Amino acid sequence: MGLLTKGQALTWEETKKHAAFIRAHGVKQFIHNFKKVNNRRNDCLKWGDEVEFMIVRFDHKNKRVQLALKAHDILPTLMQPEDENPE
Fold first, then answer.
1. Could you list the pLDDT tens digit for every one of the 87 residues in the chain?
2. Can you list the positions of beta strands (E) in 35-85?
3. Which of 22, 26, 45, 61 is most buried (CB neighbours < 10 A)?
4. Is the pTM above the cut of 0.70?
């Protein structure tokens, strides 16, 4: 996604009309991209790369999911490989 520079954003009501199409194609796009990068391991981020993440804990026994609100504390560990190999 990027900054909307031309046109106007849709209203919530207009957006809801397209939800099924967007949901179906979003899932297809995710599966396509997942298959493309599934075997990649330990890639370093490069200038312009962007990663969004959330850290969750799944409790399958009790059917609960918890979102870690202090995920920013883990970021230095995740950034260490990039800091060690900035190329």
1. 567 788 888 899 999 999 999 888 988 998 998 898 888 887 776 777 777 778 889 999 999 999 888 777 887 887 888 788 776
2. 56-59, 64-67
3. 45
4. no
| Displacement of CA 18 from its chain's centroid (Å) | 21
**Nearest-5° Cα angle at 35, 33 to 48:** 40
Minimal CA–CA distance to 44: which of 3, 2, 15, 82?
A: 82
DSSP-assigned letter for residue 6:
S
In the three-class reduction of DSSP (H, G, I as helix; E, B as strand; rest coil), residue 39 is classed as coil
Residues 6+ apart with CB under 8 A from 82: 44, 45
